[in-house]
Amino acid sequence: MSWKIAEKYRRTLACEEGTVVKGWGGKLTVCLVYPNHYRTGMSNLGFQAVYALLNDCQDVVCERAFLPEPADLTEYAASNTRLLSLETQRPLADFDLIAFSVSFETDYLHIPQLLALANIPPLASERSSAFPLVIAGGAALFLNPEPVAEFIDLICLGEGEVLLPKLLDLLRTSGDGERSAFLRTAATCPGMYVPSLYTVSYDGDAVTAIRPVEGLPSCIQRQWAAELDAAQTGSQLFTSETEFGDMYLVELSRGCPRGCRFCAAGFIYEPYRQRSLESVREQVRKALERHQRIGLVGAAVGDFRKIGQLCRFIRNEGGKVSVASLRIDTLDDEMIRVLVESGHKTVSLAPEGASQRLRTMIRKGITREQILDAAERLIGHDILNLKLYFIVGFPGETMADLEEMVQLVEDIRSRMAATARGNRRLGQLTLSVNPFVPKPFTPFQWCGMERASILEKKAAYLRKTCGRLPNVRVQFEGIKEAVFQALLSRGDRRLASLLLKAGETGSWRRAARDLGVDPERLVSRTIPLDEVLPWDIICCDKRERLQHEYRLALDGTPPGEVKS
């Protein structure tokens, strides 16, 4: 074992608050793995919540592992050291269970790499019971687990508060029994998916059938916690080496009530649930005993009932409030005042659609006037820096839509400039522009992604027109990276070979060339409505509703209306 790696891990632990270290004697040992770097994984509230849930069990030891930094990978290779856990620096192969927590599809790339680094065969079919059981969960797998189905023994489809107790009970009762028997039993439980017990058939690019072995469900329902007050999800671990540092994150809600047609959050976390104000207050009160800044977490923070009261409570208790973004049509003046008092200099808003026509199509539910009013209200409260999120490449988008977007940006900047003349300070307007990526379980899951060459032209146009404006900055997400994200979002099990090859070559693009895979052709394909989707094994009863929304969107019907 490399003493350099072990010593670095000990230094990392010394900077943490909230770490749990247990003795191993007679306990089920779990290594919870976030397939990205430490800084990223430790900023993920879901990852921290699972760590706490597992360690709350007296007979369970849960330690962590992450994707090593490039310099650490070099040291691992030079010293012939196998991937180690953070808490006790034990090889992952020594654990009973390896549990991947995966929030983003692009991290699928690291799963076979991490298994190989641990000297564990990446393919589930090549692992005997001498190796740890490999499971996985997280939002990326709620959407489409198929690209990594060949690597995982068991996939948890749903929220940890519901699934983990049942899984742990199964593991306790299985003892040293045959792994195949355990998996067969687990596959009969709601929300548990064992890919090896399902056969997939193909015809060209398309999936033609997904067949379970006899006795298993043909449709697996995600599991969700009915009562969030019982969950009390909040930060468990603190370290200066993460994005949030000493900030205490508290979850307000799950899902989103808006149902934007491109966004998965509103569909995979249905039904939309909020915690009670009293429950959040109590959690915040305890958190403020040690942490001053409180981060409010949820896909729809602005929709939380009495959000202004909550923010004022935090401030009156001596805390400061932080949020990732605000909903344009639910800006709360009390919340804005608290954000200013908490030191916020920048606020993010998400118009997303470039034009009013597109915002109607995606069911964003906001108007141009509301966007301008929101910007003006924030500036009026002395929040001078605004960040606007836009998506380009929606189905049917034209240059006329982008021209409307440019005009909107110019109008917002004009209002910023008018305010600046009064206080002699002009803020920064940042545009964060991302290519549209079709996501499973949204009405746009059948849509093809726009060709990279067209997206490049649109990016150049926006950089030229908006980038020339004073105090306006344009950030455009990498188009090649967005293509890879789309490939993993809509891919099937055959991507396992590409992910394995990418681990060998160090580049997914080189792996695709070597294997003769054309990612852009695959992601730009519009999928017929009657075609079997790779993720149809999950919540297949949602399909008819999504098709209905898809038709309404492309038909131009406004939200809430149905054409006869």
Give your account of this protein's structure:
Helix 11 (307-316) packs parallel to helix 12 (333-341). The protein is α/β, with parallel strands linked by helices and 564 residues long. The strands form 5 sheets. It has a 6-stranded mixed β-sheet. Helix 5 links the parallel strand 3 (97-101) and strand 4 (133-137). It is built from 21 helices and 17 strands. It folds into 3 domains: 3-212, Rossmann fold, CATH 3.40.50; 247-344, Transcription Regulator spoIIAA (2-Layer Sandwich), CATH 3.30.750; 345-367 and 378-564, no CATH class.
Biggest sheet architecture: 6 strands, mixed
Distance between the termini: 70 Å
Strand order of the largest sheet: 2-1-3-4-5-6
Poorly predicted runs are: 558-564
Helix count from the secondary structure assignment: 21
CATH architecture title of the largest domain: 3-Layer(aba) Sandwich
Average per-residue pLDDT, rounded, comes to 93
**What is the CATH homology-level superfamily of the largest domain?**
Cobalamin-binding domain
Oligomer: single chain
Q: What is the beta-strand fraction?
A: 15-25%
Which structural class best describes the helix and strand composition? alpha/beta
Rg of Cα set: 24 Å
CATH topological fold name of the largest domain: Rossmann fold
Percent helix among the residues?
25-40%
CATH class of the largest domain: Alpha Beta
Short précis:
Helices cover 38% and strands 15% of the residues. It is α/β, with parallel strands linked by helices.
